[in-house]
Design a protein that fits this description.
The protein is α/β, with parallel strands linked by helices and 458 residues long. It has helices at residues 12-22, 54-63, 66-71, 105-118, 165-170, 247-257, 268-274, 311-328, 333-363, 369-384, 392-397, 404-421, 425-430, 434-445; strands at residues 4-8, 27-31, 49-52, 73-76, 78-82, 88-92, 100-104, 122-124, 128-133, 138-142, 148-152, 155-158, 177-192, 206-211, 216-221, 227-234, 278-286, 289-290, 294-296. The chain folds into 3 domains: 4-73 and 104-180 and 281-360, FAD/NAD(P)-binding domain (3-Layer(bba) Sandwich), CATH 3.50.50; 182-279; 368-445, no CATH class. Helices cover 38% and strands 23% of the residues. Helix 9 runs parallel beside helix 12. The protein is globular and about 70 Å long. Bound molecules: flavin-adenine dinucleotide. Flavin-adenine dinucleotide is lined by residues 8-14, 31-34, 50-51, 128-129, 159-161, 165, 187, 230, 298-299, 306, 309-313, 315.
C-alpha cells in the first residue's frame, strides 16, 4: 500500500511538497486553513511578489514546473539604488546571465496547488490543524460549522508556516528547543502603478532599493507594469512607524526620504493607512523530526527575515533534499528523515544568520562607496580565480550546490581576505592598475581552492 502522507499547510512549501511526494506514488493529502485562493469569488488583491533564485528553481525542476513559473516571472539582473536626491546607481547581481526572478506569491501558490492536484494530491481547504498525536501520526482538523476530522497517516509534515500549529504541539514535548525573535523593524507594502500607457515607471528588470541606513524601501516588478514596494521600518523610536500616524507626517516623511518615488505613488496615503504594519519574526527550533513520522519543513522549521529573498527558496530546497534523502535510503522514512534533519537544520540556521547580515548590507552598506568598490574587486577576483573566490551573494543566490551554512562559513573567511586585499597600498590608490592586480594575484595564488561540504545525502 502507498505511504499515506498528511501535509498540514497548503502554502508555497506544502503545495510543492505534495507534488514531489505524489510523483513518487505516495497517497498525499494537504489540509489548508484558508479557503481555496483559486476560487473566483476571492479577490486576488494587489500583487505581492517574491524573489525566486536558483535554489527555488532547481526544486521546481524536480516537480517539473520550473518553466511554467519562469513564464510568469520577471528577471531582475541587478539592484538600482536610489539616493535621497533621486540619483540612481546600478549594480549587477552577478555575471552575465545570473539573475533573480520576481514572481507573484498568489500566482505561484495557485499554480503549485493546481499542479499538486494534477498529480493526485487531495487538498482540503478551511481545515485548521488543532492537534496531532506524535506516536500514531493522527492529526485533528477543525472544519467550518464546528465539524472535526481526524486523519491517520504514516508520515505527517508541518508545512504550516512561521506560526506553525504542528511545531506548537512539538513545543510541549520534552527537550524540544525553540526560540522566537521579533526584529525591531516591521514592514508595510505600498504600490507604484503602471503609467498611463501601461508601462513600467521604473527600470523593469531590476530590484530597486532606497537605502536609508536605519530603514529602507524596496520595489519588485509585477507582470502588469506595476511595482510592489515594501518599506522596512522600525515599529517604534525615531524614526519609526509610530511617528507616522497622520497624513501630514507620512507626506513629509516620503517627500524628504523618497522624493523620486512619491510622484509615482498616487495612492500612497490610502495605501499607507490601509495596508497593515506587519512584523518580522525569526524562529529556530530542534528537533525537526519526531518518532520517524512527524517532520517540519519550510518556515515552520526555519522562519527567517526576508532580506536575502531566500525563505521560500530555502523551503523549496528542503523539499528537493528530502527527495534525495528518500532516494538515498530506498524510501525508508526513518533514515531518510534523519538525513533530512542532519542536512537541513544547519542550512536553515545558516540562511537565518545570512538574512540578518544582509539587512545591514541592504539598508546601509549598498549606498557606501567602499562597499561598491569592494563589489567591483570581488567580481574581478572571482573572474580570475573562480575556484578560490566566490562572492557571497553568488554562493547564496546563484548556486544550489553550496549549502547555506557553507556559504556563510566561506563568506566569513573571504571577509578577512578582502580586508587584506583592500589594504594593499596599490589597491587603495587604483585597484585597476597593473601593480594592484599583480599584488592581488600574488595573494590569491597562496590561497587554497575552496572546498565545500556537501548538502546532499550521497
Ligand atoms: C515581506 C516578506 C518578503 C519575502 N520575500 C521573499 C522573497 O523574496 N523570496 C523568498 O524566497 N522568500 C521570501 N519571503 C519568505 C517566504 O514568504 C516564506 O519563506 C514562504 O512563504 C514559506 O512558505 P511556507 O509554505 O513554509 O509557509 P507559508 O507560506 O506561511 O504557508 C503556510 C500555510 O499553512 C497554512 N496554515 C497555517 N496554520 C495552519 C493550520 N493550523 N492548519 C492548516 N493550515 C495552516 C497557512 O494558511 C499557509 O497557507 C518573504 C517573507 C516576507 C514576510
Amino acid at each position: 500500500m502507498a505511504d499515506r502522507i498528511t501535509i498540514v499547510g497548503g502554502g508555497l512549501v506544502g503545495a510543492l511538497l505534495g507534488t514531489v511526494l505524489a510523483k513518487r506514488g505516495m497517497d498525499v493529502h494537504i489540509f489548508e486553513r484558508r479557503p481555496d485562493m483559486r476560487a473566483a469569488s476571492m479577490s486576488a488583491g494587489r500583487s505581492i511578489n517574491l524573489a525566486m533564485s536558483d535554489r527555488g528553481l532547481r526544486a521546481l525542476e524536480v516537480a517539473g514546473i520550473a518553466d511554467d513559473i519562469r513564464a510568469i516571472s520577471i528577471p531582475m539582473h541587478g539592484r538600482v539604488m536610489h539616493d535621497v536626491q533621486g540619483n540612481q546607481t546600478y549594480q549587477p547581481y552577478g555575471r552575465e546571465g545570473e539573475f533573480i526572478n520576481s514572481v507573484s506569491r498568489g500566482e505561484l501558490n495557485k499554480t503549485l496547488l493546481t499542479v499538486a492536484e494534477r498529480h493526485g494530491v487531495k487538498v482540503t481547504f478551511e481545515a485548521r490543524c488543532t492537534d496531532i498525536d506524535f506516536k500514531t501520526g493522527t492529526t485533528t482538523f477543525a472544519l467550518p460549522n464546528d465539524e472535526t476530522v481526524v486523519v491517520e497517516a504514516d508520515v505527517v509534515f508541518g508545512a504550516d508556516g512561521a506560526y506553525s500549529a504542528v511545531r506548537g504541539r512539538m513545543q510541549m514535548v520534552d527537550r524540544f528547543n525553540y526560540s522566537q525573535t521579533y526584529l525591531e523593524h516591521g514592514y508595510k507594502e505600498l504600490h507604484i502603478p503602471p503609467d498611463a500607457a501601461g508601462a513600467f515607471q521604473l527600470e523593469k528588470n531590476a530590484l530597486h532599493i532606497w537605502p536609508r541606513k536605519s530603514f529602507m524601501m524596496i520595489a519588485l516588478p509585477n507582470l502588469d507594469g506595476s511595482f510592489t514596494l515594501t518599506l522596512f521600518f522600525a515599529h517604534e523610536g525615531d524614526p519609526s512607524f509610530q511617528q507616522l500616524r497622520t497624513r501630514e507626517a507620512v507626506t513629509q516623511f516620503f517627500d524628504e526620504q523618497f522624493p523620486d518615488a512619491v510622484p509615482m505613488m498616487p495612492t500612497l496615503i490610502d495605501d499607507f493607512f490601509t495596508n497593515p504594519e506587519s512584523s518580522l519574526v525569526m524562529v529556530r527550533c530542534f528537533p525537526w523530526v519526531m518518532n520517524d513520522k512527524i517532520a517540519l519543513i519550510g518556515d515552520s522549521a526555519h522562519a527567517i527575515v526576508p532580506f536575502y529573498g531566500q525563505g521560500m527558496n530555502c523551503g523549496f530546497e528542503d523539499c528537493r533534499i528530502l527527495i534525495e534523502c528518500l532516494d538515498h535510503h530506498n524510501n525508508e522514512w526513518g533514515p531518510a528523515l534523519a538525513s533530512y534533519q542532519r542536512l537541513r537544520k544547519p542550512a536553515g540556521d545558516g540562511i537565518l544568520d545570512l538574512a540578518l547580515d544582509n539587512f545591514i548590507e541592504m539598508r546601509d552598506k549598498v549606498a557606501d562607496p567602499r562597499f561598491l568598490w569592494r563589489k567591483k574587486i570581488e567580481a574581478w577576483i572571482h573572474a580570475e580565480f573562480p575556484d578560490r573566490f566566490i562572492p557571497l551573494y553568488t554562493m547564496v543566490t546563484f548556486s544550489s550546490d553550496i549549502p547555506y551554512n557553507e556559504a556563510r562559513r566561506i563568506g566569513l573567511e573571504q571577509d578577512v581576505l578582502m580586508e587584506e586585499l583592500m589594504s594593499i597600498p596599490s589597491v587603495v590608490s587604483d585597484w585597476t592598475s597593473d601593480d594592484a592586480k599583480q599584488a592581488m594575484r600574488d595573494v590569491m595564488m597562496q590561497r587554497p581552492t575552496i572546498t565545500i561540504a556537501s548538502g546532499s545525502p550521497a
